[in-house]
Amino acid sequence: MSLTLRTISREQHLAYIQSLPAASHCQVPAWADVKTEWRSESLGWFDRDEQLVGVGLVLYRQLPKIKRYLAYLPEGPVINWYAPNLDDWLRPMLQHLRNQGAFSVKMGPPVVIRRWDAQAIKAGIQDPEVKRLRDIEATHIEPRAFEVSDRLRKMGWQQGEDGGAGFGDVQPRYVFQVPLANRSLDDVLKGFNQLWRRNIKKAEKAGVEVVQGGYEDLAEWQRLYEITAVRDRFRPRPLSYFQRMWTVLNNEDPNRMRLYFARHNGVNLSAATMLVVGGHVWYSYGASDNIGREVRPSNAMQWRMLRDAYAMGATVYDLRGISDSLDENDHLFGLIQFKVGTGGEAVEYIGEWDFPLNKLLHKALDIYMSRR
């Protein structure tokens, strides 16, 4: 296949994304408006008939004092990753980005390499010899993903660190997903473990109500989110970030972003944001108060969000990032423990890859990032 690459309009980019069953929310044109600290560009791949056959959202971050950029394609580009001529897709992209002043390119191919079902993970947690997901035999392995990795290495791409240390935003390599395609809601609920099902019933009996919010409720979201940040010791994003996210994403598609609250006796106890692109639905950000945990608002809220995703015709409900650690002493262990209760599966992508266009500047960036 003879391919050409050039800058395309946001309209062309969005129309292509809308023609697909799903794509990452990090690859829709409006994601560029969420990330205001980066310059952006929409790229399009065309076949010899001038048909658009792939797109990519590139975010450019300038180095201090010089006009050189890190070019980043989060969870992209959206191309045929299994094409035998992968070089014909990526070589013109590298040349174009070099011409734009990029000194290094980072991308996150949306290619799944392994899956572990809930049963396998639970068995791994109970085994004292098992410390990481990779210590467990995968339930499903995608052989073509290994071919993609081999091709990238041969082209000179370098695999990023497992932890994903990078320049700015870095997407998770491991996520947790609940498959919804060809399943009844009853089947999905039966897949939940006993504790989850009990907690959903407990919330129902206690009268926990789950409602959708709007732009005007983002200040209340921020209140719960900042309580969570103090408790879990992370630096929260400002309210303006979520206001911008809501505005730009829903301007692009009125159903792109949703906000949910779980409340008891009129008091909001937990909240979450949801993102939708085609048949892929993400639980994006979560927040909860330090009070009212006994009525299980988070379980009630997840169950409502999952049911809404199902009603939209989603094929997957994505609970986003997890650590691959199965060590009970690891501070992130609780995250996988909570998510595995949904009966879904842990999913490993092939990770983020770097291509140094200027080895000296790329190395300098690596040193800078390691000292942060």
TrEMBL record:
Q: A Gene Ontology biological process annotation?
A: regulation of cell shape
Q: Which SUPFAM superfamilies match?
A: Acyl-CoA N-acyltransferases (Nat)
Recorded hits in PROSITE patterns, A to Z, give:
FEMABX
Keywords attached to this entry: Acyltransferase, Cell shape, Cell wall biogenesis/degradation, Peptidoglycan synthesis, Transferase
EC assignment: 2.3.2.16
Sample GO molecular function, one term: aminoacyltransferase activity
Q: Which family does it belong to?
A: Belongs to the FemABX family.
User: What is the name of this protein?
Assistant: Lipid II:glycine glycyltransferase
Question: From which organism does this entry originate?
Answer: Streptomyces fradiae ATCC 10745 = DSM 40063
